[in-house]
From TrEMBL:
The keyword Isomerase does not apply. SUPFAM superfamilies: GroES-like, NAD(P)-binding Rossmann-fold domains. Keywords: Metal-binding, Zinc. It comes from the Bacteria. Its cofactor is Zn(2+). Residues 18-140 form the Alcohol dehydrogenase-like N-terminal domain. Residues 188-257 form the Alcohol dehydrogenase-like C-terminal domain. This is Threonine dehydrogenase-like Zn-dependent dehydrogenase. InterPro entries: ADH-like_C, ADH-like_N, GroES-like_sf, NAD(P)-bd_dom_sf. Gene3D superfamilies: Medium-chain alcohol dehydrogenases, catalytic domain, NAD(P)-binding Rossmann-like Domain. The lineage of its organism: Bacteria, Bacillati, Actinomycetota, Actinomycetes, Pseudonocardiales.
Length: 383
């Protein structure tokens, strides 16, 4: 899949008693969508609707819905959880056993199937995405959350995916008071991971990127220190800033199309284009080599398959803990909405380009190529 267009699609209908229909009022681009557009994620089909980070108004409820009614303003977790399986009951929502309606595709690739996600290929359930006027939300009592009064749509929107994803990286990465945390990537998820680390008590948070507008956001709105990786040796810089020890927790928030200034960039790019590997893992490699001995590396970026030149020796000999996950949004969103309403987690600045849905291809072009300082393009179907 490499061509985007705006077309009419059939309005969704209630299929199961726990569904609601949401009129989408805001939906945003995400870096992981670019992997779909680039053809790096399997099982996309012509006519699929993208979008998994959204907010809107409930316009229809199924007979089994108990926590929502018509008129509620809700933000919806990007991953779909049934609320009843072992994984959901243990707050591992993106691993839900019951929400992926095409489990065989993902199980063939990963060994097990993850849960379903809106607008993210048939390997992840084939659900229509949020870049539309209306969307069907399954298991709505578990995945849709009422937005507090006074929290603006464009700010609350990011509680759908970016804020809980970033928070999860800091939380499951084990960030604690006094830690030094390094975050690779100053996109929305990376900024939210940095903010989460600060709120969890980290003594210093250092964000790494190359785009001036994103580095400025991380400093001004998030409160992080920054490193432009094109102007210095990141590993050496991190050691210098940590007295030679290295960060306690390293969070990778870039994903499968990471760039680097080193010679491995061309190597990874060629192998990825030839489909000899599915990822460009430069940021993961750098995080592993930079992390202090006995530290933790948490991988937040989306990866779809296999990588080459993975530094397993560094993991073993430096005693590192490596973790990763897709976001367990339902675990965090209620708490995060309260923090956002209290002004602890700024997100409004992430909306650099607000566009009507009819300008969807333009928004993705701006977002993909970082034109005009685009950090996130937000679509408003009703405008």
């Amino acid at each position: 899949m490499n061509k985007l267009s705006v077309e009419d699609v059939r309005d969704p209908e209630i299929r199961n008693g726990e569904d609601v229909i949401v009129r989408v009022t805001a939906s945003t681009t995400c870096g992981s969508d670019l992997h779909l557009i680039g053809g790096y994620v399997p099982a996309m089909e012509a006519g699929d609707v993208l979008g998994h980070e959204f907010l809107g108004e409930v316009v229809e409820v199924g007979p089994g819905v108990r926590r929502h009614r018509v008129g509620d303003r809700v933000v919806v977790a990007s991953f779909i959880g049934c609320g009843r399986c072992w994984y959901c009951r243990n707050d591992l929502w993106s691993l839900c056993d019951n929400s992926n309606t095409n489990p065989g595709i993902a199980a063939m690739i990963y060994g097990y199937e993850p849960g379903g996600i809106f607008g993210y290929s048939h390997a992840m359930g084939g659900f229509q995405g949020s870049h539309a006027e209306y969307i069907r939300v399954p298991f709505a009592d578990y995945g849709a959350f009422t937005v507090p009064e006074g929290l603006d749509d464009d700010a609350a929107l990011f509680a759908s995916d970016s804020v809980p994803t970033g928070w999860m990286g800091a939380d499951l990465g084990g960030v604690k008071a006094g830690d030094v945390v390094a975050v690779w990537g100053c996109g929305a998820v990376g900024q939210m991971a940095a903010r989460a680390a600060i709120l969890l008590g980290a003594e210093r948070v250092i964000s790494i990127d190359r785009y001036p507008e994103r580095l400025t956001m991380a400093e001004r709105h998030i409160g992080a220190e920054t490193i432009d990786y094109t102007s210095t040796d990141v590993g050496a810089e991190l050691r210098e800033r940590t007295g030679g020890r290295g960060p306690d927790v390293c969070i990778e928030a870039v994903g499968m199309e990471a760039d680097t200034t080193g010679p491995e960039q061309r190597y990874d790019q060629v192998k990825q284009q030839l489909r000899l590997q599915t990822e460009r893992p430069a940021a993961v490699r750098e995080a592993i080599h930079a992390c202090r001995k006995g530290g933790t590396v948490f991988v937040l970026g989306v990866f779809g398959g296999v990588v080459d030149k993975f530094p397993l020796g560094a993991v073993i000999n430096n005693g590192l803990t490596i973790r990763g996950a897709q976001q367990h949004g339902q675990r965090y969103i209620p708490m995060l909405l309260e923090r956002m309403a209290a002004g602890q987690i700024p997100t409004q600045h992430l909306v650099t380009h607000a566009l009507p849905l009819t300008d969807g291809p333009k928004g993705y072009d701006l977002f993909k190529h970082k034109k005009d300082g685009c950090v996130r393009a937000v679509f408003h179907p009703a405008r």
